[in-house]
Amino acid sequence: MIEQGALYPALFRLVKQGLLKASWGTSDNNRRAKFYELTALGRKRLREEAQGWNRLAAAMGAALAAQPEEV
Amino acid sequence: MKLRAYLRSLAARFLRRSQVEEEMDEELQAHIQHRADDLQRSGVDRTEAERRARIEFGGHERFKEESREALGGNFLETLIKDVHFSLRVLRKSPGFTIVAVLTLALAIGANAMVFSILNALILRPLNVPEPESLYAIEHGSDKSLVLSYPDYLDLRDRNRSFEDLAAYNNGQAGLDTGDNPSRAFVDEVTGNYFDVFGIQPYLGRFFHASDEQGPNSAPYIVLTYAYWHTHFHDDRGVVGRTVRLNKQPFTVLGVAPPGFHGPVVFFGQDLFVPIVRQNNLNARGTPSLLMAIGHLKPGVTPAQAIGDLNSIGSWLEKAYPKSDREMRFQLAHPSLFGDAAGPGTRAFLSGVMLLAGLILLAACANLGTLFAARAADRSREIALRLALGASRSRILRGLFTEALLISLMGGAAGLWGSVALLGGLSMWQPAPKYPIHLSVNPDANVYAVALLLTLASGFLFGAVPVRQVLRTDPYQIVKSGSRTTGRRRITFRDALLVVQIAICAVLVTSSMVAVRGLMRSLDSNFGFEPRHAMLLDTDLSMAGYSGDAVPAMQRRMINAMETIPGVTSVGLINLPPLAAAGDTNDTLVFTGETNDLRPANAAANAATYSISTEYFHAAGTALLLGRAFTWRDDKNAPRVAVINKEFARKIFGSVANTTGRYYKIQDGTRVQVVGIVENGKYGDITEDPRPAMFFPILQSPSNGTTLVVRSKRDPQQLAAAMRAKLRDLDRELPPYIETWSKGMDPILFASRMAAISLGVLGGMGAMLAVTGIFGMSAYSVSRRLKELGIRMALGAQRNEVLQAALGRALQLLAWGSAAGLLLGILASRVLASIVYTATPRDPLVLAGVVVAMAFVGLVATWIPAQRALSLDPLTLLREE
């Protein structure tokens, strides 16, 4: 099981790579909280990674759906 | 740009570290609080909600650490943490740390010291503008630097290669500044001297070529900065003051800049006077100049300059066949007296530097072995850390941090020690009679080299355990408890140890050869007996004596010394043999039948001395045949001489029937031989037997005066009595009094330095070998305790156990020693050129090396052997 804290090193890494930017604000339950949003670079990267993932998923789906005689 | 941004963010993060830390803390806390809020809303009470939120969040500290790493740029933080950790580890094993630091301190200290001397004498250029184009002129097959003044003038005026040519001679004079007259070391220099060096005065002004207007001109003195500082206490009012030099008034013109002491690096004179005031300058063939120096013109190569000088030389040989011979010139750098001392010093210092480098290598090998052994002992710890997720690079970084910490501590300690020793060496006067001054204080170069060596050695021995760590398999080790890698026959560590022992044996061999050589040269026959004899050295011109007053005063001095109780005999000589390296007055001699007295027809070149009647008796020189002089051998009597055996053999063919026969000296005078004495050493301890002749002082007067006072009294009391007697005769004549053995120090300086430095290096080499073998055998015993216990339990004898425990170490020792001895013998051939009678084929040396290495082995394996023998197999087997 992945602990919740493991999120933070990943977040910081993305901030450092310039894919995320963070700012302090106030949450719904009136606590100070840090808000993360994608930067332009981050959005571009997300698109690329999403495409890559879709390609992979499509390929996997095709492979799994394939009938024996088609191989 | 990237780097700058990185550095800025690094700096910012470093400075705002607490702020970043706080923010991170707040963010993580906020996460937990938010989660707790959610849980509370679903009906859990607050305390329980927070507890659960924390559990779900996981290891708070661990994620903080990882986040910090993710933010990056914490190289410095990691470094500081590594250093803290390494210090803690090192503090836990103080014995290891101290041994390692000391080993390195010795090795790096030795290197810093040797390099500092090398730097001061050879690498550092002279402290004058454009030192690289400054050359001294040497001539003849013996590469002599000395020149006569007229020859110098011809060279100066006729050459087209030098910008200008200056020359100087050194000597001593009585300097009277108002109170007690004292001896001062004076460089008599040509008027253009300071201009040739291109230096500016620190105070006042210098004299120039235009000041030279004949023997009575330019009564000027320029002080060296050091002498002004010590004797005039930085008094700026000294310029323009009149002082008396050899009883004549001189005006202090100025002070030379700090650090300037002429062209020879190890010489420290007190003052400079114009040479033009010397009265007997015009004799061609009398070497009245020590050295001629000048800057080559821009664009003129040394080879062109030599060609230019040689054409003047052949003209000189033709024009003055009686005096000028071997006028073939060479150029040399003046800083070590040209080729007289340069190549030998250079070779010796480079050799010692090489040995010091070997010591450092041996120390690194030693520490590398120690580190490898330590890493093996810590394999469990390392395996555990690897298993817990530490990266190998992180562990290696830790090990390197440890190695570098040790090397930095060792380097700092070594440098500190060598700076202290070098300070002492700079103050030291190896021969107080001469202004020898070794300014060997370290400069930036030395510190840079020391730092470089320190870091390099840290990385070198830190790298030894790297492979071991990289190969560590945590699973295997945690499971089985110890490494189970197969033993190879010859490991890297074994090879290191053999190399190290070989280096040590080389050092021990060469130091023994040098020490033996020195001992033998001290025992050899000099042709006089330096023990129980005092020398009183002075120059009568310092108190203004000249002409007939000189021998009269000398006779009064002899008579006065003879009245001191306990004195058996007193002799006088113009300059005692072996007074300074290579320093003899040589005269060409011809057979009695030669009429054409050209240098080419000379039968020999004989060392020439002027002595009093009792000299041979006082010096302990054996008179073999004939008689010594009497006071009746004066100016009006026929010229007579006492010659040595070699002279008789060379000129007359045999020793027998030589007395009463005649030979000629260069001015055509026929000299009758009245006595023959044993051969001796005159210029140098290493010289072959050479002809020497002695003239009576009344026939060959000299201002240079050395009284040889033979007595068995305590030297200090005797010296005081001699000083008092001389004061009674003339209180303005400053003497230098020392025992004859001390008087020979300058001549033994080179071989003594060789013996001392090699002895020290040899000792260090032996120490390193001991710690190296000790480390290895102790480690091998501790690793094989279990095996040894089983062997003993199965009934192995003591010697079998020892064989098993230490056999390998001793085998390596034997191999290393044999290789080292062989190399040492080869290296000692070089030594033979410096240390008289140094020969490696001396059975005592060979035996000494073998005994020393065996002793080293015994000392090093004693404790491990005791440990192996005192094993109790029962306890051991129960425990393991």
Give an overview in words:
The complex is a heterodimer of chains A (71) and B (880). Chain A has a two-stranded antiparallel sheet. The model of chain A has no long low-confidence stretch (mean pLDDT 86). Chain A has helices spanning 7-16, 40-65, and strands at 20-26, 32-38. With 71 residues, chain A is an alpha+beta fold. Chain B has a 6-stranded mixed beta barrel with strand order 2-3-8-5-7-6. The radius of gyration of chain B is 37 Å and the shape is elongated. At the A-B interface, helix 1 and strand 2 of A face helix 2 and helix 4 of B.
How many angstroms separate the termini of chain A? 37 Å
Q: What percentage of the residues of chain A does DSSP assign to strands (E)? A: 15-25%
Q: How is the main sheet of chain A built? A: 2 strands, antiparallel
Mind telling me the C-alpha Rg of chain B?
37 Å
Which class do the helix and strand fractions of chain B yield? Answer: alpha+beta
Please tally the β strands of chain A and state the result.
2
Helix content of chain B: 40-55%
> What gross morphology of chain B would you assign?
elongated
**Biggest sheet character of chain B:** 6 strands, mixed, barrel
Tell me the overall shape of chain A. elongated
The structural class of chain A is alpha+beta
Give keywords:
heterodimer; A: 71 residues; alpha+beta; two-stranded antiparallel ribbon; 2 strands; B: 880 residues; six-stranded mixed barrel; 21 strands; elongated
